Amino acid sequence: MTRPESAGAAPALLVTGTTSDAGKSVVAAGLCRWLARQGVKVAPFKAQNMSLNSVVTPDGAEIGRAQAMQAAASGIEPSAAMNPILLKPGGDRSSQVVVRGRPTGEVDAVSYRAHKDRLRDIAVESLAELRSRYEVVICEGAGSPAEINLRSGDIANMGLARAAGLPVIVVGDIDRGGVFAGLHGTLALLEPADQALVAGFVINKFRGAPELLEPGLRQLRELTGRPVHGVLPWLDGLWLDVEDSLALSADRGPMPAPVGEQALRVAVVRLPRISNFTDIDALTVEPGVDVRFVTTPHELEDADLAILPGSRATVADLAWLRDRGLDSVLAHRAANGRPVLGICGGYQMLAREIRDDVESAAGVVRGLGLLPARVAFATEKTLARPEGTCYGERVAAYEIHHGQTEVVWAGSEAVPFLDGCRAGAVWGTTWHGALENDAFRRAFLADVAGRAGRRFVAAGGTDFAAERAARLDALGDMVEEHMDTDAIWRLLESGAPSELPVVAPAGTAGPAETG
């Protein structure tokens, strides 16, 4: 087994999936971690990402958090080239387009097609840039490569693979059921030139008896001429920077068991267009903290701390909040000194007034009025990595927002909190990632517990960065122990095998041909 040569364009591999959330991000991160531990200088790449969970890189670019997580798995800093195109949905039909880390405007599904050729060139150039700087690049696809209605404009799956000559593996989630149909059907729907690059499969989230799976693996190879390069086990508790709120419906892993009445109960409002809900991940590893995502007044009333998270559509989500009666619960909490925290879009909702001529074009909208602040949306997006001190502890964070919040200090009893303020038991800040700072998180939770009347003391010693690193190591272990790593090396060194059989779609005449 030899390491890939670094002369010229570095080897690269594309990880696709039968569906969204099949495990592409996890497998790509695991491959990055495994390679980095072999001493390989590796980088992640995703040509086009649709996600409301993003992060600001050291070079001031906005990219998907999944690629930042994969960069951490690789032991490197994230950069704009790792996710050159980011789509941030603002509704059912429109998205903000972020190119090389900078927003370029809003498009709908139809008008986006006109930009595809230009964006494909940007994606290919970005991948070439990474392949010139690193020894290996692990690419992640988007959704499924078999979305035949979108294939002509594809820039993230087989369109990228064809343009850059990448070998491809397809990941299927066996926990969903129908994994063999998904893998075979994905391949069969691809045109022959695309099929020629699909070198094998990976089955994810297996937790059954291996001997029961073996006949299916054998038949899949007989039907497709391609091997299964790994059967990955179910791993609890990964919660690794997921891309969208669909993952909130799934198990995000075991939370520390609350201890009787001392448990601090945290309720996070699950907004329809929730963004950067990864802000909450650090709370889930704190012993004695019970975190839940909620949508009803009753669930919010019962919590010791209510959190309004980020939102891609502040005004629309504020209207949803009012429609469900959650605004009354928040007002009642504030009036009775029961803790509320607003982060970014959630902070904006807590203000007295929101002027939005940019995101929703709604003009002036009445906020919840729980903090003495006014918000005005700016055309230019703020992307920053601020640092400061709070509760006597250092805090490093990042900012992503159009809304500019001004605190009205005169005549109020508000006090500074990070870049925002606190009034009574209501806190607001635009800083994402603040809770990942261990000492600050514990001090904040201790303050919350005191105001909530809980006999709770935040435990010392919880290291969120170490927890995240341990989970990335678990992914590297999973790849090393359950994937055919020799086959992965061969794909990186030599590309997809030649003369792979073409699998005919159902209903076509004749046997599969070799092409």
TrEMBL record:
Gene3D superfamilies: 3.40.50.880, P-loop containing nucleotide triphosphate hydrolases (3.40.50.300)
Alphabetical list of Pfam families matching this protein: CbiA (PF01656), GATase_3 (PF07685)
SUPFAM superfamilies (UniProt xref): Class I glutamine amidotransferase-like, P-loop containing nucleoside triphosphate hydrolases
Pathways involved: Cofactor biosynthesis; adenosylcobalamin biosynthesis
One of the record's GO molecular function terms: ligase activity
Entries under PROSITE patterns matching the protein: GATASE_COBBQ, GATASE_TYPE_1
Any one GO biological process: cobalamin biosynthetic process
UniProt domain CobB/CobQ-like glutamine amidotransferase: residue ranges: 265-439
Signal sequence extent: none
Keyword Heme (UniProt): no
Annotated CobQ/CobB/MinD/ParA nucleotide binding domain residues: 14-238
Active-site positions on this chain: 344 (nucleophile), 432
KW Transmembrane (keyword) present: no
Entry keywords, A to Z: Cobalamin biosynthesis, Glutamine amidotransferase, Ligase
Domain of life: Bacteria
Cross-referenced NCBIfam families: cobQ, PRK00784.1
Family: Belongs to the CobB/CobQ family. CobQ subfamily.
Known function: Catalyzes amidations at positions B, D, E, and G on adenosylcobyrinic A,C-diamide. NH(2) groups are provided by glutamine, and one molecule of ATP is hydrogenolyzed for each amidation.
The protein, known as: Cobyric acid synthase
Organism whose genome encodes this protein: Lipingzhangella halophila
Lineage, uppermost ranks: Bacteria, Bacillati, Actinomycetota, Actinomycetes, Streptosporangiales
Gene expressing this chain: cobQ
